[in-house]
Amino acid sequence: MEYTLRLGDNALILGQRLGEWCGHGPVLEQDIALSNVALDHLGQARMLMQYAAELKGEGYTEDKMAFFRDITEYHNCLLVELKNGDWGKTIARQFLFDTFNYFFYTGLLQSKDERLQAIAQKAIKEITYHAQWSAEWLIRLGDGTEESHKRVQKAIDALWEWTGELFEMDEVDEKMCEAGIGVDLAGVKQQWHEKTAEILEIATLKKPEDGWMQKGGKQGEHTEYLGYMLAEMQHLPRMHPEASW
């Protein structure tokens, strides 16, 4: 259950964060595009949380999973909960995560868990588009004006330390891999490094050196940013727990 919930939390939190751009994008077309990416993530979160709720039992539903857990019960990676920053930082974060997500879900297509495999098959088209969209924008900004290049390089440098957790294998990951359900993150890491290096070079950006990496999100240890987000996201459901549309 926790493995599925981790994937659902990644999608839910990133979708919520991207939703903050609605009405604030640099141009109308990209405002709509990013809002659609946010909706894609929320759709993926629904599928994963429905499955996680079924596995947990005890009367859990996707809504209870999303809105009635405390911060330490969320297991998303730290990268997706960081504040959006400017357009360049949002694009940089999307590129780093989208590239990971593409290779991860490509691996999940081979899962022995039929439900996870089906979710991956449904999500992979959206995830492929996300990876292409953010890479194209990174190239546009990196190889654009002096100002855009400076901003997006600064964003890549600042976000790099949050990427190591994406490939960290803990006991849950190892058990799922042994069972043929999960994805080997070592293989994903190699593919991710090769692809990010390729796109960064095209974008005339420098790839940061690997060093100390932030971690803890998978285990429920989060930044203060997630607490503020949950306070806003969970306010109405907790105020009116029996409400229905």
Number of domains: 1
Specify the oligomeric state. single chain
CATH H-level homologous superfamily name: Ferritin, core subunit, four-helix bundle
The helix count comes to 10
Total number of β-strand segments?
A: 0
Poorly predicted runs: none
CATH domain class name = Mainly Alpha
Stated plainly, the CATH topology is called Ferritin
> What spatial form do the alpha-carbon principal axes imply?
globular
Percent helix: 55-70%
Helix and strand element order: HHHHHHHHHH
Task: Profile the largest sheet.
Answer: none
Indicate the CATH architecture: Up-down Bundle
Name the structural class.
mainly alpha
What number is the mean pLDDT?
94
Radius of gyration: 18 Å
- Measured between the Cα atoms of the first and last residue, the distance is 28 Å
Report on the structure:
With 245 residues, the chain is mainly alpha-helical. The chain has one domain: Ferritin, core subunit, four-helix bundle (Ferritin), CATH 1.20.1260. It contains ten helices and no strands. The protein has helices at 2-19, 28-56, 62-67, 87-108, 114-142, 146-159, 171-178, 185-202, 224-233, 235-239. Helix 1 (2-19) runs antiparallel to helix 2 and helix 4 runs antiparallel to helix 8 (185-202). The protein is globular. It starts with a helix and ends in a 6-residue tail after the last helix. The model has no long low-confidence stretch (mean pLDDT 94).
